[in-house]
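[Solved] Which block belongs to which protein?

Original post:
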Amino acid sequence: ADIGAIERQTLQPLVLNSSFDANVNIWPEVTVGASTWDSTQNAAGPTGSGALHVSVTSSSVTARKQCVHLPGPAIYALNGWGKSTGTITPGSYVRLGWEYRSAGSETCTGPVTASGSLLLATNGTWRKPTTAAAIEASNFAWTTDSSVLVYLVVEDGGGIGGQPEAPTANLNAWFDGIEVLNDRIFANGFQ
C-alpha cells in the first residue's frame, strides 16, 4: 500500500464530525432521544462549535455511535473529551466503548475481533485521557473491510464497593473531539 503524504490526506479524519461542529450529524442514535447538540459546551473544534449532550434517565445510556473504516494495518489510538455534571455517585462515568471487526466492512457488522472502553470523565470538568485506547489492526487480522465501531456511553452510579445503586436520573454528560488516530505509523524506526 502507498503511504505517501498526498494519498494519505484523503483518508483523514477517520472520525467524521468528531467535534460535533454545529450538529450531531454522522452519529446515529442508539438510545433515541437521550442526546442532543449543545451550543453552550465546547472542548474541541472552533470556539462555540458545541458538543454532544447526554441526559441520563437510566443506569446506562449508549447515546450514539459511529462506524469508522480503518485504512490499513496499524495500532490506532482512540481518544476524546468528556465531562459530566449533576449527581455524580461512585461508578458514574463517561466513556468511549469500541468494537474492532477485522471483516466488519464500512457498516461495522459481523463478528467482533476485539473490544474495550476508555474512561473519559467522572467529574464536572472537561477531561481527555493522557493515554488513549490502543486498537490493534495487525498485519494478520486487518482486511480491506476492517472497521471499528465507536460508542458514546454514560453510566449513572454503580454503588459503593460494587453494590448496585439506583440511578439518580440527574446526571448530564458531554462528549467532544472524538478521534481515531494512527500516530505510530513509523514506530518501528522507518525513516
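(Second protein starts here: sequence line, then its C-alpha cells.)
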Amino acid sequence: MTILRTLDPFRAWSFRSIVSLFVHGSRAAGGVENFLESHPFLFGYLDEIAQSGFEGLTLDETLERLDHDLSKTTEGSHHPLDAARERNLWSADTLTGWMWCGLTREDPRFGKVLEALLGREGLPGRATLSSWIDDSPSVGELLAHGWLEELDAGNDKVLRVPQALWETARGRNLNEPGITHLPKHQL
C-alpha cells in the first residue's frame, strides 16, 4: 500500500510541487539551509510532508517516492488532477509546473519563492517555467488550451491557473465546467 492512498490527490500533488520547489530552490540557493533561511515559512510544509510518511528521506528520495506512488494512484482515478494528467498525457513535471502557477492561491507566501526562482509578481514566467517542465505539452499549449492564463507584469508576462480550474483541482465546483471538461489537447 502506498502512502499516497491515504492522502487526497490534491494534497499529494501539492506535496510533489512543493518538494520539487525545494529541490530547485535548494540548488539555486546553494543548499537547503540557505533556501529555508530565505523562506522560513517552508519549515511548516517540510514538517507536514515528513509527518505524512516521508520522514527521514532526502528531498530527492521524497520526490522519487512521490513519483512512484503517484504513478500507481493516477490510473483510473476520478480526481480531476489525476484525470487531467491521464487524459492529456502529462508528465509529473508538467502537472507540477501547472501547480506552481496556482500555489499562491493556496498560500500567498509562495509568491516570494516563485518570484525568486521562476518569475515576476510572485508567479512563474513563460521562459523559466518552460525550462523546468518537459516539452510535452509546452507552456504555449497549456495557454492555448486554457490550462493557464498569461497576465501582464510590467514589461513581462506571468502565468496563473484560472480560478475555476484551481477550484476544480481543489475538489470544489465539481459540477462546474473545469479540468475534466476541457478538451484533450492535440499532441
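Accepted answer:
You had them paired correctly. Confirming on the second one: The CA atoms of residues 131 and 139 lie 10 Å apart.
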